[in-house]
Amino acid sequence: MSAAREGLRIARAALLLAAALLADPAARAAWDIGALMALLRAHPPGRAHFDETKTVSILDRPLQSSGELVFTPPGRLEKHVTSPGDERVVADGERLVIERAGKRQVIALAEHPEVAVLIESIRGTLAGDRAALERAYRLRLAGDAASWRLELTPRDASLEDLVTKVAIEGSQARVERVEIEQADGDRSLMQIRPGTG
Amino acid sequence: MRRALPVVLWAALLALCALQVARTRFVADLSSFLPAAPSAEQRLLVEQLREGALSRVMLMAIEGGDGETRARLSRALTQRLAADPRFASVSDGAAAGFAREKDFLFEHRYALSPGVAPQRFTEAGLRSAISDTISLLASPAGALVKPLVLRDPTGETLALLEGLRPAGGPRMAQGVWVSPDGRRALLLARTRASGSDIDAQAQAMQAAESAFDALRAAPGGEARGARLEMTGPGVFSVRSRALVKHDVERFSVLGIAIVASLLLAVYRSPLALALGLVPVLTGALVGVAAVSLGFGLVHGITLGFGTTLIGEAVDYSIYLFVQAGQGERAGDAAWLAGFWPTIRLGVLTSIAGFSALLFSGLPGLAQLGLYSIAGLAAAALVTRFVLPRLLPARFRMRDLSALGGALRSLAVRATRLRLAVAALALAALAVLAAHRSSVWDPELSTLNPIPAADRELDAQLRAALGASDARYMVAVRGAGLEEALAAAERAGAALDPLVAGGRLAGYESPARFLPSLATQRARLASLPDPAILRTRLRAALDGLPLRPERLEPFVEDVARARDSKPLTPESLAGTALGAALDGMLLRDGEGWTAILALRPPAGSHGLDARAVREAIASARVPGAAFVDLKGELDRLYAGYLQRALAMSAVGLVAIVALLFAALRSPARVVRVMAPLAAGVAVVAAAHVLAGTRLSILHLVGLLLVVAVGSNYALFFDRMAVQPEETAPRTLASLALANATTVASFGLLALSSIPVLHAIGSTVAAGAIATLVFAAALAPRAHGVRR
């Protein structure tokens, strides 16, 4: 992706942000969660590359994976792992479909809140869907538009047994880093950069 | 004393009949109207239709309100009904399928999982299965497997749960199943009682409805716009019973009211009206008692049909009263000599026609036949022997000669229509000949009283839920439970390639819930002993991020499974798995039948029957049969339709023979039969032209047309050889008889129940047609004694 095109995209996002701020006088001055969400909503990421490191206590060493993320608003998030192996995980609406080695597994998210809560934190952020995020989490925003950090902590006591914290960092409309800490000490860190491959 | 004897006998008969009727069982579901299936296979079908797992499925949809409200109602309703003993299982998708049985499934995973086989526990097999589990651990679904990994690293529990859930599964929103357009929340329930237990089904529906009403009325008010829709075999049985009951009650009351007002308007005498109804009520009572004695139960439709017999049985008293000469006493010697033989012949003709129904082989039609024969015979005999003795000494009928005179000139003019009638009859025959291949409707569903909109809703809900539509199934036999389950496994293995190839969406097999003992033993035997398993794990995990020592709980579980006993039906008792299994296995005197319900591919209208047949045949499963339930029932019905048609032909021959014996003149037999034949042809052709295909019930209607019309034709024939002055009286009696018949049958044509509507519309039209045709084709010369 050329720098000029990237610049254009940022300019467009800024323009949209300006428009959103002008439309809402109360929010004009402040960089807050509403502004971040509006920015994210106005500028969905499309395709991006990711590198993920997952630390699981029962495993001897962290699991590394990388591949492509494709987000189609409002609710479809595809994670295509290209290394190691080839795996496609699609969260679409209330279903999670895992395809690997010709096998297809469908998981109903509603049946498995422990899975749904993690998916929702990423999907809700990418979609700029504050209501969806606030259903499960309390939100706290730090930093400014150029470098922000959104921290999600579970609202519900039952969720605290699953996840302790989700921290999402980014710059403008771009999500760059998602860190998840689970109650049993397991962690995952996903770094995201624009483009494919 | 001799004079009073018939009255005494009649009173005694009434008392006996009343006693019999009092202890009669009345039923109203359509299944008892259906054929008593002749072959073992067909019996199995009807059995499965009435009792099996498929009959217990209840589909529910919540409509109206917003999605959030529907989801909340759906969850709350599921919770309430799950606690209700009338329901074996209820699901809204949130705890899809057998989530409540998770612990049970986890404990018995090595006996139940289709993945358990010797190669699964070799070094390579373990490595591949555990690698998959580790990948899953890294995926967003990792949280799902994490608690199970150390005891179930090969992922048997998940494989098992997946096999029990409908493939693909319905769409979900707000955590519950919804229809593809998202406007309905869907629930899938199974009742404990079978679909044929209509009272229990009605109670289950009632429970669901009142639970839903309570939830809807809960504070907040946003749920007030929501509605609960239910479908399923049991629901349909309850609805059709209610429909039949409603129509029978309504049409009995209305029929009697209309006929009574008509008679009152003509007779202008409440006494005459009351006396005129005596043969009708006697006939109805005797008819019901006869059916009750002959069949052990009486169908609601028989009663509904019985109300129409009012229209025909009332004719006899009309003839008795109206045909009496001016100033003469009804039922005197002149009437007995001049009119009774004709009525008697008409009754015998009707009985000959209805005998066709008696031998049709369909229990419902046989009931109608017996009811009609017994009812008409009783009504006629009461008119002849009892009614004249009940009349007060000074009973005289009102003078109807003005009406008779007017009718007389109409009748004379009608004979000019002779050629027109002939042309009409020929045209009707031509229409029937042109449509001869499509005159009769071969489908049983035309008799279904459930409105098309309800059936459409049922089809939609089934498609959305991936529920089997109870149409296609594979049945396998075994001498014992073990053999039947083994046969189900072999049939399932033959179907798997069709599922993989997309020619089947899936199938339900009892062997998924309870594998045969042989399969369970083979699975458990494929588990290695702890020492070997540990060695293999060490090699298998080389290079993977999981140390073999961590999997010690797995080794222990496998060791325990090796020593465990296989599952039996008793182990499943009381669980949702047991309830599901229960409906898929049938036991009879000779052995067990396992039913595998097939799901056709989504969006298709039916399934590739040939591919399924071939797959089953190639698997060489003993006693396996692919069954297309609807097709099979239609075939069964077509057989009965053929038989009923053949019996009607026999009835026709009997009628002609009877007429010939009584009239002793081929010309007169032709003269009597001509209006009847023309009437039947014109009514049948009119139905065909209106786009209605004739069912077996239209055949019943046509038989009734012959029965009613034969009286008209015989009287017109009689008039030619009777004194001129009796003609107006005869015509007045015919007109009144016709009016009551048309009124009561025409009323029936308004019924929403296809069975009653078909009979009503056929007979009302046929009665008018045969009367007009009989008048038109009547001999012109009057008053000429032979």
Secondary-structure blueprint:
The complex is a heterodimer of chains A (197) and B (786).
Chain A: H1 3-23, H2 33-42, E1 47-55, E2 63-72, E3 76-83, E4 87-92, E5 95-100, E6 103-108, H3 113-127, H4 130-136, E7 137-144, E8 147-154, H5 157-160, E9 163-171, E10 174-182, E11 187-194
Antiparallel strand pairs in A: 1-2, 1-11, 2-3, 3-4, 4-5, 5-6, 7-8, 8-9, 9-10, 10-11
Chain B: H1 5-22, E1 25-27, H2 40-51, E2 57-63, H3 67-82, E3 87-91, H4 102-107, H5 109-112, H6 123-138, H7 142-145, H8 156-164, E4 171-173, E5 176-178, E6 185-191, H9 198-216, E7 227-231, H10 233-267, H11 270-295, E8 297-299, H12 300-322, H13 333-338, H14 340-358, H15 363-390, H16 401-414, H17 418-434, H18 452-465, E9 472-478, H19 481-500, E10 506-508, H20 510-513, H21 517-525, H22 530-540, H23 552-563, H24 569-572, H25 576-582, E11 585-588, E12 591-599, H26 609-619, E13 625-628, H27 629-663, H28 666-689, H29 696-719, H30 727-748, H31 754-776
Parallel strand pairs in B: 1-8
Antiparallel strand pairs in B: 2-6, 2-7, 3-6, 4-5, 9-12, 9-13, 10-12, 11-12
Assign a percent range to the helix content of chain A. 25-40%
Helix content of chain B: 55-70%
| Strand tally of chain B | 13
Low-pLDDT segments, ≥5 res of chain B: 782-786
Query: What's the average pLDDT of chain A?
Result: 82
Biggest chain contact: A-B, 38 and 34 residues
Description:
- The complex is a heterodimer of chains A (197) and B (786).
- An eleven-stranded antiparallel β-sheet of chain A has the order 6-5-4-3-2-1-11-10-9-8-7.
- Chain A has helices at residues 3-23, 33-42, 113-127, 130-136, 157-160; strands spanning 47-55, 63-72, 76-83, 87-92, 95-100, 103-108, 137-144, 147-154, 163-171, 174-182, 187-194.
- In chain A, α1 packs across α2 (33-42) and α3 (113-127) packs antiparallel against α4 (130-136).
- In chain A, a hairpin with a 2-residue loop joins β5 and β6.
- Helices cover 29% and strands 44% of the residues of chain A.
- Chain A is built from five helices and eleven strands, in the order ααββββββααββαβββ.
- The radius of gyration of chain A is 17 Å and the shape is globular.
- In chain B, a hairpin with a 2-residue loop joins β4 and β5 (176-178).
- In chain B, 51% of the residues are buried.
- Chain B is built from 31 helices and 13 strands.
- In chain B, strands 9, 10, 11, 12 and 13 form a five-stranded antiparallel β-sheet that branches.
- Chain B is 63% helix and 8% strand.
- Chain B has 786 residues and is α+β, with helices and mostly antiparallel strands.
- Chains A and B meet through β4, β5, β6 and α3 of A and α6, α7 and β4 of B.
